[in-house]
Each structure stands twice: as C-alpha cells, then as structure tokens.
Write a structure and sequence with these properties.
The complex is a heterodimer of chains A (about 280) and B (about 350).
Chain A: E1 10-21, E2 24-30, E3 45-50, E4 54-59, E5 70-75, H1 79-86, E6 92-99, E7 114-119, H2 123-135, E8 143-149, H3 158-165, E9 171-177, E10 187-188, H4 191-198, E11 205-209, H5 212-225, E12 232-235, E13 251-252, E14 255-256, E15 263-265, H6 266-270
Parallel strand pairs in A: 7-8, 7-11, 8-9, 9-10, 11-12
Antiparallel strand pairs in A: 1-2, 1-6, 2-5, 3-4, 3-6, 12-15, 13-14
Helix pairs in contact in A: 4-5
Chain B: E1 2-5, H1 9-19, E2 21-28, E3 31-36, E4 62-71, E5 74-78, E6 87-92, H2 94-107, H3 114-122, E7 123-128, E8 153-158, E9 161-166, H4 169-178, E10 183-184, H5 188-201, H6 219-223, H7 227-231, H8 240-243, E11 251-257, E12 262-268, H9 288-306, H10 318-322, H11 329-336
Parallel strand pairs in B: 2-6, 6-7, 7-8
Antiparallel strand pairs in B: 1-9, 1-10, 2-3, 4-5, 4-12, 8-9, 11-12
Classes of the chains: A alpha/beta (about 280), B alpha+beta (about 350).
Bound molecules: flavin-adenine dinucleotide, iron/sulfur cluster (2 copies) and FE2/S2 (inorganic) cluster.
Amino acid sequence: MCNCEILIPKLGIITDIRDETPDVKTFSVTAPDGGVVFPHMPGQCAMLSIPGVGEAMFSITSSPTNTAFMEYSIKKAGVLTDWLHRAETGQQITVRGPYGNAFPVEGDLKGKDLLFIAGGIGLAPLRSVINYVRANRKNYGKVDIVYGARSADDLVFRKEIESEWDGIDDVNVHLTIDRAQAGWSGNVGFVPAFVKDLGFTKGRTTLVCGPPIMIKFVLAALDEIGFDETKIYTTMELRMKCGIGKCGRCNIGSKYVCKDGPVFRCDELAALPDEY
Amino acid sequence: MLKLSLSRMEELFSRINGERTLYAPIQIGEQTQFTPWVPDAAVQMNRLSTVKSPKDYFFPHIEDIAAFRVQGKEIEILDVRTEAAPFAVFGVRACDAESLNLLDRIFLDDPIDTFYESKRKSGLIITTACFEPEETCFCGVFGIDALSPGGDIATWIVDDTLYWNALTEKGEALTEAVKDLFEETDDMAVKAAQEKAQTVFDKLPFRDLNLDGLTGEVLMKKFNSPEWANLNPSCLSCGTCTFICPTCHCYDIQDFDTGKGIQRFKCWDSCMCSDFTLMAHGNPRTSQLERFRQRYMHKLIYFPDNNDGAYACVGCGRCVQKCPISMNIVKVIKALGVENDV
Ligand SMILES: Cc1cc2nc3c(=O)[nH]c(=O)nc-3n(C[C@H](O)[C@H](O)[C@H](O)COP(=O)(O)OP(=O)(O)OC[C@H]3O[C@@H](n4cnc5c(N)ncnc54)[C@H](O)[C@@H]3O)c2cc1C
Ligand code: SF4
Ligand code: SF4
Ligand code: FES
C-alpha cells in the first residue's frame, strides 16, 4: 500500500506551473533527482505540504504512464492552495502517498466502452485515467468524455482536450458551459441534462467526478436512463489529515475515504449513510 | 503465582523503576492520574478510576512527527523519531488494558503507525484486578473480566498482599528481574476473593445493557433512527467524552513555527467539534446531532463493522462520570441497543 514512512513526507520540486483557469493551476512535481516521487495508479491521491503553511490532499492528475514527473491541478481554496498559487518553479514541497484505492483500470474497466463525466476541477482525477487509457488504447472500447464548467474560462486542461484528446484514437469529447458566452459555439447547459441529451447506451462503464451536487444530479440522470449502478464509479472528497485510515476524520459510515476510497462504485456508495 | 506483602511495594516500585521508567496511578490533589513514579509517591492501590487512561503513554496527547528547515525555496526534512525507552505502567485496570488491544486494531493495521508501535513494543502493562467496581463500570457488557485482567502481568490485591502473575514473555522477563522480592504461592486466596467480588459485579446497575440490536446488518437502520433527535439536543460539543475515552483515536496534524524551524506534530482531536470535518466546499456534519451520532455510531456500529464485531468501548464509565450534561454511551445503548426500535 503506502510505500512511505507513515506521516513523514518526501521531498518534491515544482518544475512547472501552468494556468488552467483563473483559480486553477497545474503543478508539475518531480523527486529531487528527477522522475516521480513515487509510483501511483489512476485515482490515487497525495498529501502535499509547505511546512508551516499547511498540508492537504490532492488527486494525482498525471497518468502512471508518465514517469518523468507527477502533476497536480490545484484550485485556490484556502491557506495552502493560495500559497501554492503564488509559488514559483524551483519551489520545493513535501509529498506523501500514494493514498487510497484507484479506478480499476486493470480490472473492471478493461475492454469496456467508457463514459467519463466531469464537472469543474473534477476532471483532475479522471485525467489520470483518461491518459492511462489513451496510453493503452487497445485495451479499452469506445471513449466518450462529457465535461462541463461554469464558463469557457473555467474549463481545465482545455489545450490538452482540444489538441490531444478530442477526435483522436476514437476518443470523443463533449463540452458544455452553464451559460452562453461570446465566442462559445459548443453546448450550453448543465452536465446532467447534457448527458441525457447525448443518448449514450446503457452498456457503458461510467466514471463521474465533480462537485458533490453535480455528482448527485448526474447519478439521478444515469439512473433515469437506466444505467447499472454497479458500472458507475465516482470519487469522494472529505476532510483528511492522516491519509491512512487512522486519524478518524474522513469516514462515511464504516468506510474511510482515504483508505477504502476515494473511488467508490455507486452500489457501494448507496449502502453508506448519506453523510458527504 | 507470586506474592508480596503490600508493605514492600515501595521496594518493588523502586526495583521496576531501576529497570525501566515506571508510571503508576498517583494521587495529585483530589485526582488520581497516571504519572511517573518517584520515591514515596502516593500510589493509589485501590482507587479504580484515573481521570484519563494510560493511553497517553502509547498515543500521546501531542507528539512530534517531523521537523523541517525552510530556507527560500528549499526545504529540509528532519526525521525526529526516537526509539521509545522501555517503560512499565502499574495499576492498569482490565478495561484500559483491553482498550490498547482495540487501539492496536487501528494503529498496527497496515500501514503500521510506527510511532505507536515503538511505544507498544517498549511498554509493559501491569494490570490490577478490580474487587470494588464503581457504579458506572460496565466492562462486563463487552466481555471484559475485571477480576482476571490482561496485560503483560496481572496482579490482585487481597488484604495486605499483592498477588502477581506474568501473562506474556515481556511480563516473564520483568518478573525474573524482581523475583527475589516475591514468595511462591497458590491461587487460593485470589480465587476466593474473585468469587466474593463476583456477587458485587452481578449487582452493578449497567450489567444488563443489551447489545443485541447493535449486531449484524443494522448500520443504515441505526443511522436513521429517530432516537438520535431525542438523545443529542443538550450536547454541548465540549469534547470531554472524547478526550477521556481510552478508545478514542482521532487526531489532528498541525505545524508549529519554533522560530528555528517548523515542528510538525499530531495531537488528539475530537469528532464532537464543529470544524472537525469542515472543508473548502462545505461540511458533511453541520449539526451537533450529526457529530453526536458519529461518535456513537463509530463506537457501536462502524468500528465493529471493520473489526470482527469488537465494539470501540470498554465500559470504563469515564464518559458516564464526566459528561457535564449526563449524556453518555450507556444512554445511547439503552436507546438503540434494543432489537426492535424503529
Ligand atoms: C481525496 C481528495 C482529493 C482532492 N483533490 C483535489 C484536487 O485534485 N485539486 C484540488 O484543488 N483540491 C483537491 N482536494 C481539495 C483540497 O484538499 C482542499 O481544497 C484543500 O485542503 C484546501 O487546503 P487549504 O489549506 O488551501 O485550505 P484551508 O485553509 O484548509 O481551508 C479550506 C476551507 O476550509 C475551511 N477551514 C479550514 N480550517 C478551518 C478552521 N480552522 N476554521 C474555519 N474554517 C476552516 C475554510 O472555510 C476554507 O475555505 C481534494 C481533497 C480530497 C479529500
Ligand atoms: S465510550 Fe465512555 S465508557 Fe466507553 S470506553 Fe469511552 S469513555 Fe469509557
Ligand atoms: S456528550 Fe457530553 S462530554 Fe461529550 S461532547 Fe457532548 S456534552 Fe461534552
Ligand atoms: S484522513 Fe485520517 S482517517 Fe482518513
């Protein structure tokens, strides 16, 4: 599981910082002598910290197939994330992990037609899966990605979506924004309605990530179309401190999100109290 | 079994303390607390309940986990862990000894908490049987036998004599080192005292607490029980019940700027506090009802769910004695433990 000394982090260096949206930046991080700080699987997370500022959990958005560096897409939300948004390349940080389970990319997802549904920064954990699937394209069936944000400026990874994903190797991306804006010719509307409009067949294995409220509505929409709960995966986000199921902070019922999650199958989630 | 006259306890404590640091229930003002033994300390041989359990010695209230030196963009990570020095805790009660077995299930589960593990390895538990339980005791409900306590060495105080029995290899080793103080004896006196005390246990007010309704697939049913609304309204969210509980294991991680560097430490935290689960995008438990429910669902349903049915309560009665509004796990069990509540 965790290949680090418990709670004691490793050193990382921020080697690149990219603006994604006005409040999201993507950070490339390597070990001091290059390469990833530790290997991971898509969906897993890591605790990043600037000592004296704070420590927080982030999805590893890069694919395990990228062994040159790790990436984290971070939204400005408080003390640590504000600090990181002001950081420059060359900044050292501490990293511990990888934490949690992963999407079953070598298990139940293999050979399936995949549907990715994301809202806002929720594309970050799915990006790791998407790029893993692209790197092993022949192992998976059709790939559709439905992605929405408040406005065109709030879509993360836009360049990568347009130049590397959409229309390439039988991957199709469907973008939507909440309200019409000048220069936008794509769909306008919320993700759940858009998913229904696109008319996917029920056989899809689906991965959903985004704000809790979006997840709830998407799941309701999928249920309406008749999708099978046991083929829908999502990730949960709860306040975390230890990352290893000991500090007691992140439970939903008897599951610890840091250890038993963050990836849950929807039928597993349905068996847990609605406390997230 | 070995025996020693109580008049020679000072000698025994001094010998153990020469071997390893000794902690014992010592009277300080009105209270009895586990503290380092010193010559002539007022060790309370018969006083049952210490304010806190000896949990601190294994899972300290505050513990450094790492240190950092930060200079410009550079960070140096310093490993501050030290091997725990050998120590012994004398006078641990059966309930508190069992609470460590429950904490083991959390901290020694993969990945192992090496901070805890190191103290568990170097710590030795000397338990003392309870012949005069308090009204608030209900360890028996959880299958704990206060008359035959666990730990590395079990002791019984009958009249003016301490009876001593090593239970583990660690316990045997310490026994070997102090054996010359003791006399060999049989267990007749202990047996007789146990039998006599059993009648006291059989009359304890909470002996019949019924856990039937808290076994099996009842998670959702208990979570959604209307009883929570009746139980919690007066909870002050003070956190007392969590800080005195020998099985509570929630902790926080924080950084402290010492002026020379950054010290990262973990410290006990409480699920009863309102910002425990607060996040950037909201809080899954905004009301005290939800936090109250979390504490007791964890002890009575979630923990057993993950740990072969073992409840995360040892019936020590501390929360029964100390809650300022007299709310406690006994009332929760009474409300939720019955099989057919709706
Ligand atoms: C599994 C997981 C994966 C995640 N992945 C990502 C990701 O890929 N990208 C991403 O951007 N984020 C991600 N997050 C969220 C991220 O962890 C939080 O945004 C981060 O913790 C914010 O840290 P901070 O120090 O900037 O904010 P903090 O300063 O800790 O504050 C965050 C918010 O919490 C509140 N708060 C915290 N402490 C207190 C207090 N003591 N009193 C009052 N209010 C308080 C404030 O309202 C504040 O808005 C993830 C979280 C989890 C659990
Ligand atoms: S819940 Fe109360 S009675 Fe049970 S172990 Fe904790 S403090 Fe003791
Ligand atoms: S149950 Fe009692 S001791 Fe616990 S937080 Fe509420 S008021 Fe405090
Ligand atoms: S973050 Fe500590 S238990 Fe999950």
